[in-house]
Amino acid sequence: MSIWGSLIGGMVGFSFGGPIGALIGSMIGGKLSSSRRGGFQQGFVQQQQLFVISLIILTAKLAKVDGHVSKEELIAVKEKLKIPEHEIEQVGKIFNKAKEDSLGYEPYAQQIAQIYRRNPSVLDEVVNILFYIAEADGTVSDSEINYIKNVSTIFGLNSNQFESIRETRVGSHKQNPYVILGCQLSDDLQTIRKKYLKLSKEHHPDVLMSKGLPKELITESEKKLAAINSAYDKIEKIKS
């Protein structure tokens, strides 16, 4: 089932509050109901819709850090999210609402971190896709890097995890396999293999989709898994 078709409307009855609930509620003419515990009662399709909405909001905030939104970035958003033509207007409304919103990105990132607190690999993928969007105009500025790093910190990712994601975005011939796997030159192959197996399992597309990552967004995750596999192959050859 595609995530497109009723992105905003599909959130009606979805029980959550916070800045995301307020933003979407303002677009549908009313507040979304919030649970007593402030928790998130998510069906699987709603998980996917919420992932996309979260990504659109953070992308809109990312687009502001350089003071302008480039045509390349907008094209990347459309292509990355595989937005069909008939849904462009709806997605554009979410994007523009978040971009014009006076609230900073931090409250949104904090809420997203809370939603996916039990699925850190999904948060990892949000950071990965933010890098993809930032790369769209040919370069990732210092302000964009700082933004993405701050988001990853709010998500609870440590510096090694952030650098691992960042390194997978580098051309394959320039990648440092030790940084990608979050290990040291002095680590033995057995220790490195344990880290590799953990990462390859966490970032397998099937696992990510089971946690709410829409199939429309899986391409960059597949590239990351390929970088993880390649990193281990390189280290194995060195250590053997």
Give a description of the structure.
It is a single chain. With 240 residues, the chain is mostly helical. It has one domain (9-239). It has twelve helices and no strands. Helix 2 (44-64) crosses helix 4 (88-100), helix 2 (44-64) packs parallel to helix 6 and helix 3 (71-80) packs antiparallel against helix 6. Residues 31-42 have low confidence and may be disordered.
Summarize this structure briefly.
This protein is mainly α and 240 residues long.
Largest sheet: none
Output the helix-strand order.
HHHHHHHHHHHH
Number of E-state strands: 0
Number of helices: 12
Mean pLDDT: 81
Keyphrases for this structure?
single chain, 240 residues, 12 helices
Break the fold down into its secondary structure elements and pairings.
Blueprint lengths: L17 H10 L16 H21 L6 H10 L7 H13 L4 H11 L4 H15 L7 H13 L4 H10 L8 H5 L7 H14 L2 H6 L8 H21 L1
